[in-house]
From TrEMBL:
InterPro entries per record: DD_EFCAB10, EF_EFCAB10_C, EF_hand_dom, EFC10
Matching Pfam families: EF_EFCAB10_C
MF-aspect GO terms: calcium ion binding
Origin species: Centropus unirufus
Protein name in UniProt: EFC10 protein
CDD domains membership: DD_EFCAB10
Length: 116
């Protein structure tokens, strides 16, 4: 890796640009708007407003979708999933698991899954 690449990688990591781009791409593919550029502008404005606590962050999934996803992970109906399943689901949704404080032996319920 060239010496000039490391500051670039650090900049992207610090500002969580890969996660943002992944989430925006997921939103775009999920909603498939007729005007993708306008949709992305609105999504970024929602993120900006959400950071100022003036609005909600754009959601890829609603509660029904999250419940269905949880049901797919909890195939035997135990009412909880493993921490490993939880982390993988977050990654699949394009969400960061950095700083997630869930022990490896934790049982994640539907309520916790939706909250996170």
């Amino acid at each position: 890796m060239a010496a000039s690449e490391e500051p670039c990688r650090e900049y992207l990591r610090r500002h969580r640009i890969p996660e943002l781009l992944q989430r925006l791409s997921a939103l775009l593919l999920y909603h498939r708007p007729d005007n993708p550029r306008e949709f992305l502008i609105q999504a970024l404005e929602s993120v900006k407003a959400g950071r100022r606590a003036q609005g909600e962050f754009p959601d890829l999934m609603d509660e029904g979708n999250l419940g269905a996803m949880f049901g797919l992970l909890d195939v035997v109906g135990r009412g909880h999933i493993s921490a490993t399943q939880f982390r993988e689901a977050l990654k699949t949704l394009g969400l960061s698991t950095e700083g997630l404080q869930v022990g490896d032996d934790a049982c994640i319920t539907l309520d916790v899954f939706k909250e996170e």
